[in-house]
Amino acid sequence: MGKARFLVRGANIGLAAVLVASGLASGGTAQAQSIEPTVSIDEADAAIIVTARRREERLIDVPIAVTSFSGAQLEKAGAIDLTDIGLTTPNVTLETSRGTNSTLSAFIRGIGQQDPVSGFEQGVGIYLDDVYLNRPQAAVLDIYDVERIEVLRGPQGTLYGRNTIGGAVKYVTKPLPEEFSLKVKGSYGSYDQADGVVTASAPIGSIVRVGASLARLSRGGFGKNLTTGLDNYNKDVWGARGTLEVGGHGAPVEIRISGDYTKDKSNPRGGHRLIPGLVSGTPVLSDVYDSEGALNDPKQDVEAYGLSMNVTADLGAGFTLRSISGWRKDDSASPIDFDALAAVDVDVPAYYRNEQVSQEFQLLYDNGGPLTGLIGAYYLSAKADTQFDVRLFTSDPILLPGLTAFTQADVDTDTYAIFGDFTFKFTEQLSLSAGGRYTWDKRSAYILRQNYLGGGSPVFGGIGLPLGAPGTDFDGSRKFNKFTPRVSVSYQPSRDHNIYASYSQGFKGGGFDPRGVGVNAPDLNRDGVLEDSEIAAYLSFRPETVDSYEVGYKGNLLDGALYVALAAFRMDYKDVQIPGSSGCVVNGVPTFCGVITNAGKARFQGLELETTARLGRDLAMAGDRITFSGSLGYIDAKYKEYVTQVPGQGPVDVADFRKVQNTPKWTGSGTFTYAAPLADGEISLSSTVSYRSKTYQFEIPNPYIDQKGYALWDASLVYTAPDNRWSLGLHGRNLLDKQYKTSGYTFLDADPVTGALRTAPNGNLIPTLGKEGTLTAFYGSPRQVFVTATYNF
């Protein structure tokens, strides 16, 4: 629920890292709260105003758990892409999805989605200039020309167009200045990193402004694909943004039209095998960034682009009308080699094609009285089309040559919503906020599953022959409606303290498993015939709901030298839907199947702390200062009910043996910053350590692929010239070169209750898909050191 606006008066401040959601100065003037600040927290010339509830308020007044990062902060910290902000935000995981370069996997307070299949809405909403991105493909947004990025924890719906059950991440690009501007930024570093961004804008007359950015972002690989010879984990991206603004800057009407384009030609990202080949005996590679997968057709290629138009009109008498229109499209070609070996075994060439149109209207009211609020309406129409092969060897390639399971899933979403949220101040100390949302979701799906013998499907240039009838040939739709409320109460004994409590409900519509196999549906009425209704029931999954409770405190202490924001939360999560995949049998043929598990119930409860402290100033010289900023997150995430079908036993509750994925119990970070005047400019030295405790990659614990707790150390040294004319920075990321897993694939036999991996009599693990055994991992970035130079003309 947040859109932060940073108002800077007087001093040139250029914040440098994480702005804590609640950093305000005493006496009504916000002070800079940051993980890596270039100013002390007591410079009263810096005023931070947020519009978290779609109106301007001091951040301390807002009863919402939100962390915000300014563009200047991110630039000073050397942030590269959207995943970087997850390191210093409590109870948040933002990672590049397994086997891809640009698909985002996002989790907030235990809620998210790792498997980016087309039939599922994300648990965490991603917004680009207030336009909701319906799919996670192409959502690992590179950081350039950014005004701010905000992370909102907990369900969002009464103030935002799209209902998101776990939280939201908002990426907001910079507005255009009123005068001519030209900025050039370049970076060069390890692994042949070479980035360049050129940004220019100019006024046309008195009310029209135009601007554009062009970015070239490149880097060599962290490792090699030893089969294809290609760099592994490399980067090859072109990006561009353009903006037209009319009015604004005090005019009653402001129109902002923006467009963006991204072309990602990076090589396919290959996984690292954690076990030797079970048939070939291929050993585990010594370098975790190396791979041996041979699949490189189709060529990795991601193209994403979109347009948006934001219109704001002051209607007078305290009323403001806003319109947010968006259109987006992205196409991805991805060769994913699951087992990371040269053999054609569990090779998955895939196409993802997404398109969406959205429209949002808001009518806001604020006439300076005790009542403020808004009402809104939202519409989204989205298409997510996916095609992929799963190519397998068989045990006897002469009698039964290679098998391919081809899947085509076209999933359409149409959603309408009306929402509202109002706040009434009974006194200067006590206020009540209440809101609600009604959502109408319609999910339509066409799903085709066809096995091929002797080669791949024709879609990917294969010459395989159809093997039997389709395993799925389904066309259907379902509707899901839900009202979700929100209420909060806030008590402020003084302007520097806020105690609040809130309740909100989140909702995510159901749908159809885009990889499901219809012929495996149970014959519910036992008449010997699979009816359309039985197939629909088998392929469909239920909507999810969450009840979220939160209490919090935000306060300025010690005359503004210490800021503390503390929140405690509990979330009761019902009908948790978990997409997955496994080896299975279809029409007597061993192949690949999608699996949707209704995990039933989960409970998440925990604490979040964000703080900033002024440790000293005027120490070695006049004007220098030392500050500390930190964050700490704790979450007790537990399944209360997790029912699965166990052969020979029927439905069994296995909650005691399941874990919540991508949700470490502890997250934390701390940054010390020393800043001092130098040659009429400023030099800033900052050092950040971030920590994440043990992370489970899947609901079933896996000793090979799960990541034990680890810490990362980053540091930056930045000099900023007078008047911010130019800057020069040296940045180090993961300076201790820690190797840590972020995701992976596993297709190995396990006990259906405990999840313990089973072994054959010879001691080998037992594959359930393919013959070599799939157990591969993907890793976070190794140590990177780079310099960045910026010049403003």
Describe it:
This protein has a 22-stranded antiparallel beta barrel. Strands 2-5-11-12-9-10 form a six-stranded mixed β-sheet. The longest helix is centred in the last third of the chain and has 8 residues, at 532-539. A hairpin with a 7-residue loop joins strand 6 (92-96) and strand 7 (104-108). The chain starts with a strand and ends with a strand. The chain is an all-beta fold. The model is unreliable at 1-48 (pLDDT under 50). The radius of gyration is 26 Å and the shape is globular. It contains two helices and 44 strands.
Distance between the termini: 36 Å
Coarse structural class? mainly beta
Cα gyration radius (Å): 26 Å
Strand content: over 45%
Oligomer: single chain
Mean pLDDT: 88
Give the CA-based shape.
Answer: globular
Number of helices: 2
Please mark out the parts with pLDDT under 50 across 5 or more consecutive residues, or reply none. Answer: 1-48
The major β-sheet equals: 22 strands, antiparallel, barrel
State the share of residues found in helices, binned by percent: under 10%
| Count of distinct strands | 44
Q: How is this structure best summarized?
A:
With about 800 residues, this protein is an all-beta fold.
Write the layout of secondary structure elements.
Elements: E1 4-8, E2 18-19, E3 46-50, E4 57-58, E5 66-70, H1 71-77, E6 92-96, E7 104-108, E8 111-113, E9 124-128, E10 131-133, E11 146-153, E12 167-173, E13 181-189, E14 193-204, E15 208-219, E16 223-224, E17 231-232, E18 235-247, E19 253-264, E20 272-273, E21 301-316, E22 319-337, E23 347-366, E24 371-392, E25 403-425, E26 430-453, E27 465-466, E28 472-494, E29 497-508, E30 511-512, H2 532-539, E31 540-541, E32 544-557, E33 562-586, E34 589-617, E35 625-641, E36 643-646, E37 650-653, E38 666-678, E39 681-692, E40 710-720, E41 726-733, E42 741-747, E43 774-779, E44 784-792
Parallel strand pairs: 9-12
Antiparallel strand pairs: 1-3, 2-5, 3-4, 5-11, 6-7, 7-8, 9-10, 11-12, 13-14, 13-44, 14-15, 15-18, 16-17, 18-19, 19-21, 20-43, 21-22, 22-23, 23-24, 24-25, 25-26, 26-27, 26-28, 28-29, 29-32, 30-31, 32-33, 33-34, 34-35, 35-38, 36-37, 38-39, 39-40, 40-41, 41-44, 42-43
